[in-house]
Design a protein that fits this description.
The protein is of the alpha+beta class. It contains 2 helices and 6 strands; from the N terminus they run H-E-E-E-E-E-E-H. The mean pLDDT is about 80.
Amino acid sequence: MQDKEEERSLINVEKKLSSDGYTQDFQVRDGRLCTIGSDSNRTYGPEDVTIVDFYRFEGESDPDDMSILYALETNDGVRGTISSAYGTYGDSDALDFLKQVEDLGKNLHKHHK
Protein backbone atom coordinates (compact mmCIF):
# COMPACT_ATOMS: atom_id res chain seq x y z
CA MET A 1 0.00 0.00 0.00
CA GLN A 2 1.60 3.27 -1.16
CA ASP A 3 0.27 5.44 1.67
CA LYS A 4 1.94 3.20 4.25
CA GLU A 5 5.26 3.38 2.37
CA GLU A 6 5.11 7.17 2.34
CA GLU A 7 4.19 7.25 6.00
CA ARG A 8 7.22 5.10 6.76
CA SER A 9 9.46 7.35 4.69
CA LEU A 10 8.27 10.37 6.72
CA ILE A 11 9.06 8.45 9.88
CA ASN A 12 12.49 7.55 8.47
CA VAL A 13 13.24 11.18 7.63
CA GLU A 14 12.18 12.27 11.11
CA LYS A 15 14.43 9.62 12.66
CA LYS A 16 17.37 10.72 10.50
CA LEU A 17 16.86 14.38 11.39
CA SER A 18 16.56 13.50 15.06
CA SER A 19 19.84 11.57 14.91
CA ASP A 20 21.39 14.67 13.27
CA GLY A 21 20.34 16.79 16.25
CA TYR A 22 17.00 18.16 15.00
CA THR A 23 15.15 17.14 18.15
CA GLN A 24 12.94 20.14 18.96
CA ASP A 25 9.35 20.32 17.74
CA PHE A 26 8.25 23.77 16.61
CA GLN A 27 4.93 25.46 15.92
CA VAL A 28 3.97 28.99 14.87
CA ARG A 29 1.88 31.05 17.26
CA ASP A 30 1.08 34.74 16.89
CA GLY A 31 3.54 35.07 14.00
CA ARG A 32 6.49 33.62 15.93
CA LEU A 33 8.16 30.21 15.90
CA CYS A 34 7.72 28.54 19.30
CA THR A 35 9.28 25.49 20.89
CA ILE A 36 6.79 22.77 21.84
CA GLY A 37 7.13 20.77 25.02
CA SER A 38 10.24 22.62 26.07
CA ASP A 39 10.62 24.12 29.53
CA SER A 40 12.08 27.29 28.05
CA ASN A 41 9.13 28.17 25.79
CA ARG A 42 11.41 30.14 23.49
CA THR A 43 10.03 32.11 20.55
CA TYR A 44 11.74 33.32 17.37
CA GLY A 45 11.02 35.78 14.60
CA PRO A 46 11.72 35.00 10.92
CA GLU A 47 15.09 36.77 11.17
CA ASP A 48 16.14 34.32 13.94
CA VAL A 49 15.54 31.14 11.90
CA THR A 50 17.33 29.35 9.06
CA ILE A 51 15.67 26.68 6.92
CA VAL A 52 18.34 23.98 6.68
CA ASP A 53 16.39 21.52 4.55
CA PHE A 54 12.88 20.45 3.65
CA TYR A 55 11.14 17.25 2.55
CA ARG A 56 7.89 16.93 0.61
CA PHE A 57 5.56 13.98 0.93
CA GLU A 58 2.70 13.44 -1.51
CA GLY A 59 -0.29 11.17 -1.13
CA GLU A 60 -0.47 8.70 -4.01
CA SER A 61 -4.25 8.48 -4.14
CA ASP A 62 -5.07 12.13 -3.38
CA PRO A 63 -2.96 15.01 -4.74
CA ASP A 64 -4.38 17.23 -1.99
CA ASP A 65 -2.84 14.89 0.60
CA MET A 66 0.58 16.58 0.61
CA SER A 67 2.77 17.67 3.47
CA ILE A 68 6.16 19.24 3.95
CA LEU A 69 8.65 18.80 6.78
CA TYR A 70 11.18 21.57 7.45
CA ALA A 71 14.47 21.18 9.31
CA LEU A 72 15.16 24.48 11.08
CA GLU A 73 17.98 26.00 13.11
CA THR A 74 17.59 29.09 15.27
CA ASN A 75 20.18 31.81 15.86
CA ASP A 76 20.87 30.41 19.35
CA GLY A 77 21.51 26.88 18.06
CA VAL A 78 18.17 25.16 18.68
CA ARG A 79 17.53 22.58 15.95
CA GLY A 80 14.17 21.06 15.19
CA THR A 81 11.38 20.44 12.74
CA ILE A 82 8.00 21.79 11.79
CA SER A 83 5.56 20.21 9.37
CA SER A 84 2.54 21.43 7.52
CA ALA A 85 0.01 20.09 5.08
CA TYR A 86 -0.54 21.82 1.77
CA GLY A 87 -3.75 23.19 0.36
CA THR A 88 -6.97 23.31 2.31
CA TYR A 89 -5.48 21.54 5.31
CA GLY A 90 -2.31 23.63 5.46
CA ASP A 91 -1.22 25.52 8.54
CA SER A 92 -1.30 28.99 7.01
CA ASP A 93 0.45 30.54 10.04
CA ALA A 94 3.39 28.15 9.67
CA LEU A 95 3.55 28.53 5.89
CA ASP A 96 3.39 32.34 6.14
CA PHE A 97 6.19 32.34 8.72
CA LEU A 98 8.40 30.06 6.63
CA LYS A 99 7.75 32.22 3.55
CA GLN A 100 9.04 35.21 5.54
CA VAL A 101 12.19 33.24 6.42
CA GLU A 102 12.68 32.38 2.74
CA ASP A 103 12.13 36.02 1.74
CA LEU A 104 14.98 37.01 4.08
CA GLY A 105 17.21 34.62 2.11
CA LYS A 106 17.66 32.39 5.14
CA ASN A 107 16.90 29.08 3.54
CA LEU A 108 18.68 25.93 2.54
CA HIS A 109 21.97 26.32 4.35
CA LYS A 110 22.70 22.62 4.59
CA HIS A 111 24.77 21.99 7.72
CA HIS A 112 24.02 18.30 8.16
CA LYS A 113 24.86 15.35 5.97
